[in-house]
Write a structure and sequence with these properties.
Length: about 280
């Protein structure tokens, strides 16, 4: 795998300006797929976003496992070994620091890997409920079809919130557009069950493993008794919630703090083990 020839201007680019397209490292502005690719035209494809810590990916294997399942559920041809090779080649060439690795495969058969900067995150979030009907056929699929998720966030921000809390037409709390949702009642950590068509998030799985959290069907009315809440994702790790609609919450509360510490400790242990 080699980097394309580049001129003097290209050599001035920083390391994050590289991408890997179909196994070839190229300047990111030259990483192009055909406009006829149904990944672009119809959002038909799969993706994962992996957190990088000083350039080292956390849980890359688990992300690729989920990506494999997503592709299988979409009946999408998927070469896991090639995707992993692309990712590792890009990380070997890009001094990425604390960042994000995005990998995707399109219906047109194209593989893309790129490094993105971490977004600026607030200290805590205000969540506004948005009615959302999950597409059942896409259960367990992390597909490129993310327009509904992005629209939900915009609708919540139009109402003055930071992010959406997705609620089914039947009134069940699900998750956030790009994060899992956890809340605390009577000191117990709870999260909506996967059976509610919630994505099996890598960070959600980690929290379930390192805490006593349990699944609990939840409505917005149930959240009136919440003592704390937070969202969780690879990008955010554990991010406190200070408002859900009109409900004000401590941010962070003690359970949130303890969960964040447990998650970070597990991440640091895993990264240290990978280096060793």
């Amino acid at each position: 795998m080699a980097i394309m020839e580049r001129g003097a201007t290209d050599r001035q680019h920083d390391e994050r300006s590289l991408a890997c397209l179909d196994g070839e490292l190229v300047p990111i502005e030259r990483a192009c797929i055909p406009v006829t690719d149904e990944g672009l035209l119809r959002g038909d494809g799969v993706f994962e976003v992996v957190r990088l810590y000083e350039g080292r990916p956390f849980a890359l294997d688990r992300h690729l496992e989920r990506m494999s399942r997503s592709a299988a559920n979409l009946l999408l041809p998927f070469d896991r070994a090639a995707v992993e090779e692309d990712a590792r080649a890009l990380l070997g060439a890009a001094k990425s620091g604390d960042a994000l690795l995005r990998v995707l495969v399109t219906r047109g058969g194209h593989r893309v890997a790129l490094v993105e900067p971490l977004p600026a995150l607030p200290q805590s979030l205000a969540l506004g409920g948005v009615t959302y009907a999950p597409t059942i056929v896409l259960d367990g699929v992390k597909s490129l079809s993310y327009a509904a998720n992005m629209l939900a966030g915009r609708l919540a921000r139009e109402r003055g919130f930071d992010e959406a809390l997705l609620v089914s037409p039947q009134g069940s709390v699900l998750e956030c557009p790009t994060a899992s949702f956890f809340w605390v009642r009577a000191g117990e950590l709870l999260t909506p069950p996967l059976e509610e068509h919630v994505l099996a998030s890598i960070t959600r799985q980690l929290i379930m493993a390192v805490t006593d959290a349990r699944e609990q069907p939840t409505s917005l009315e149930d959240l009136a008794s919440a003592e704390e809440a937070f969202v969780a994702s690879s990008v955010r790790e554990v991010l406190p919630v200070h408002t859900i609609e009109q409900l004000e919450l401590p941010a962070p509360g003690p359970v949130t703090d303890a969960t964040a510490a447990a998650v970070r400790a597990e991440i640091e242990t895993a990264l240290a083990r990978a280096v060793a």
